[in-house]
Specification:
By secondary structure, the protein is an all-alpha fold. It has a domain of 113 residues: Up-down Bundle (Methane Monooxygenase Hydroxylase, Chain G, domain 1). The protein has five helices and no strands. α2 runs antiparallel to α3, α2 runs parallel beside α4 and α3 packs antiparallel against α4. The protein is elongated. The N and C termini lie far apart (112 Å).
């Protein structure tokens, strides 16, 4: 135990040498010249306005072709819809066992696929719009074309819904039973 007491006494002597007078070492407080003084003016960052690059010439011609095709297909759709409306009216009140009902169903399916051809053009325009967005080129003309083709597709949707409602009326003998 005496060796431990001796070791402790020696440790106290060595550590007391480190705790000398505070006037021998500089203060750790912040000195006056270390303090931040004044203000620095921060310049506002220059905002650069990025403009999309112009649409390629071939894209403009593709847009016009798509619009022309959509209008042509819509015109064909409307003319076909008139004849389909007559077939559906003739099949009114009949059922699957009647030949007129089968003809009306077939004509309606043909009209629906004509509608799909117009909708495919809208899909193509959507792809062009996405490509223009990703390549950072002008999209305004594509958006206008999409809006006009979308209006044609919506008009065709309305006609198809109307004809589907006429086609789905129950046969006369089933309607009488209900």
């Amino acid at each position: 135990m005496s060796s431990i007491a001796g070791f402790a006494a020696i440790a106290c002597v060595f550590t007391s040498a480190c705790a000398g007078g505070s006037d021998r070492y500089p203060s750790l407080n912040i000195r006056d010249f270390e303090r931040v003084q004044g203000q620095f003016a921060v310049a506002a960052p220059a905002r650069e306005v990025l403009l999309p690059s112009p649409a390629p010439v071939e894209q403009v011609s593709q847009l016009q072709d798509a619009i022309d095709q959509a209008q042509q297909r819509h015109t064909e759709f409307v003319m076909t819809a008139d004849s389909v409306r007559g077939l559906i009216a003739a099949a009114g009140g009949t059922g699957p066992d009647n030949n007129r009902w089968s003809l009306a169903q077939s004509a309606y399916a043909d009209l629906d696929s004509r509608h799909g051809a117009t909708a495919i053009l809208l899909s193509d325009l959507d792809q062009m719009y996405t490509s223009a967005t990703l390549s950072f080129t002008e999209r305004e003309q594509i958006d206008q074309a999409r809006n006009s083709v979308s209006a044609l597709v919506a008009a065709e949707d309305t006609i198809l819904d109307e004809l589907h409602l006429l086609l789905s009326t129950p046969p006369v003998e089933l309607a009488d039973r209900e």
